[in-house]
Amino acid sequence: MLKKVSYGGREYLVAQVAGKYYCTDLRCPHMGGDLSKGTLQGTIIKCPMHASQFDLTDGHVVNWVEMKGLAGGLLRMMTSPRPLKIYEARADGDRILIKV
After folding, report:
1. At a CB cut-off of 8 Å and minimum separation 6, what does 42 contact?
2. Domains along the chain?
3. Residue 76: in which H helix or E strand, if any?
4. Average pLDDT for residues 46-61, to the nearest whole number?
5. Gap between the Cα atoms of 76 and 97, Å rounded
């Protein structure tokens, strides 16, 4: 499950994997892709724009910009890998609490 949520004028991504909740900034640190439109495989979120991948458990970069050729090389040179900012999230009854 991937869900976009807004709080305090900011947008976040909340994901549920095997009964555990994860929260991060909604936008990919590469070029701002909406991660709620990405794909989730286990705890790895893949950005829909350039296929950068991040682990939701700690935000580390799994793969930075999955484009090949000259365009991919230029995109990788223009922006260095940056992890996702992760926020603590947990279920409390029917609510998801996020520590921001």
Report:
1. 17
2. 2-99 (2.102.10.10)
3. helix 69-78
4. 94
5. 35
Model confidence, pTM: 0.85
**44-50 contacts, C-beta under 8 A, 24 or more apart:** 45/2, 45/13, 45/15, 45/84, 50/75
Question: How far, in Å, are 54, 87, 90 from residue 49 at the CA level?
Answer: 13, 23, 28
Percent of the chain with pLDDT over 90: 67
C-alpha–C-alpha distance, residues 35 and 12, integer Å: 9
Task: Give pLDDT, residue 30.
Answer: 83
Q: How many CB atoms lie under 10 A from the CB of residue 43? A: 16
Computed over its alpha carbons, how large is the radius of gyration of the chain?
Answer: 14
